[in-house]
Amino acid sequence: MVKNNKINGLWFFVALLSAGMAHADNGTFALCAKNFPDNNAERLKCFDGVLGSAAQIAQIVPPVVPATVDVVEKRKEVAVDRSYLTRVWNLDNRTGRDPSSLDRLQPHRQSYLIVRETNNVNKQPATPTAGHAVLTPYDMDALESKFQLSFKTDIFTQGNLDLWGLKTLRLWGAYTQQSHWQVFNTRNSSPFRETNYEPELIAAFSTGNETGWKLLNLGVEHQSNGRTNPESRSWNRVYAQGGWEWGNTSLLARGWWRIPENVLKDDNPDIIHYMGRGDLVVRWEPDSKMQAVSMLLRNNLNQNQNLGFVQLDWSMPVQLGKAAKLHAQMSSGYGESLIDYNHRQTTMGLGVSFREW
């Protein structure tokens, strides 16, 4: 009889255990035993809580649960809510990327593909350098395709810097390529009119500020079109760039110094006069982040003969797939490309731009 009672009691305990498991995680009993190894009373109290209700379990031993869908979605929201400068320059030092994968390639400048038209075709590119004059005008169309590809990758990171208010250092290698393609000029086999190659090495310092001054970049840059005379154009420069951000508005201000070249080999000795001594990029990004408006200003800071360039880009809230948006661009002034560094024109274009983060 005693034996039967023990068996019945065992089955009763199993039944209670099964019922309790409907309210608790499988590992809760183990947590009770682990938390109270030498206190039988507290351990039994914990077991009673397991068999009682999930609410009691949570109070006695908070269970370790995996991330729910809501948690995952909130993490996504946090990632989306990163500001423009933070995303592009990784100012919050996000880690976890596979160093061997293409994830290391990050956006640098805007990448886009547009069809644009100019009001003033540069049929005879010119430069003061002797022997660099185009004698026969080129047969070029006003309407052409323009595309830009720009990316960078981090090479080195130094945290806990604490140098003059700068908290971290990140070394970037960057590359930008811009091409102007006479795709509709079939009578001349649709040639590439101009392609500019621009590699950079950038030391980016983060201030750690949530708003205001957030970034200091020190860079060295080469830009050329890979052509031979008389179309050859190139220059090298070092620059300093500051980055500020307030809410959904960011500002990048840069000044540069051209590295001197041999006078006899300089393809464009007056390039500073036309391309300017610095530039300013102002960007506005609404809260939805479905669109962005940016304006690039460049100026030679010469009061007597002031020359400059302005470019306005608008990534519209029109999704074309998962990674592209409708994109409009307007520019006016000198230096839309290197071959046009001393040529004034106004252009209008429409096409697509690609994700920036």
Structural write-up:
The protein has about 350 residues and is of the alpha+beta class. It has two domains: about 1-60, no CATH class; about 85-355, Phospholipase A1 (Outer membrane phospholipase (ompla), Chain C), CATH 2.40.230.10. It has helices at about 1-20, 30-35, 40-50, 55-60, 70-80, 85-90, 270-275; strands spanning about 105, 110-120, 145-160, 170-180, 190-205, 210-225, 235-245, 250-260, 280-285, 290-300, 310-320, 325-335, 345-355. It has a twelve-stranded antiparallel beta barrel with strand order 2-3-4-5-6-7-8-9-10-11-12-13. A hairpin with a 7-residue loop joins β9 and β10 (about 290-300). α2 runs antiparallel to α3 (about 40-50) and α3 packs antiparallel against α4. The longest helix has 20 residues, at about 1-20. Residues about 5-25, about 55-65 and about 70-80 have low confidence and may be disordered.
